[in-house]
Design a protein that fits this description.
single chain; 149 residues; mainly alpha; Serine Threonine Protein Phosphatase 5, Tetratricopeptide repeat; 7 helices; AP180-like; cell membrane; phosphoprotein; ENTH; phosphatidylinositol-4,5-bisphosphate binding
Amino acid sequence: MSGQTLTDRIAAAQYSVTGSAVARAVCKATTHEVMGPKKKHLDYLIQATNETNVNIPQMADTLFERATNSSWVVVFKALVTTHHLMVHGNERFIQYLASRNTLFNLSNFLDKSGSHGYDMSTFIRRYSRYLNEKAFSYRQMAFDFARVK
């Protein structure tokens, strides 16, 4: 499975038509390609968290929507992108995540598409629990100790 799938291209085109550049970047960062999210898309999203006119809840909701996909690749990339924004994005992003009761409800995630999907499902469930805990600890402490220089 190499290159973007037709589904990925159609989704990116839909976001382009609706004028949501942030949603398009999220879609491009979370494609079905078995590789990490591209740096240019992550950098764009980090820059977007620093802009005052960007809707952070909409950005987060687009990431949560991508995390409901049945493919472990898309879900994993959504988690990686969210984690990257929590660490490197504007603090408004993690503040919004901390204000939500639940982020990722992936405790029952299982990709049945193949043996690799079964293997990665365990890791995805663990990674989503980690991100949920990270947001919860930020809510409790109002501080992210990982961001301290």
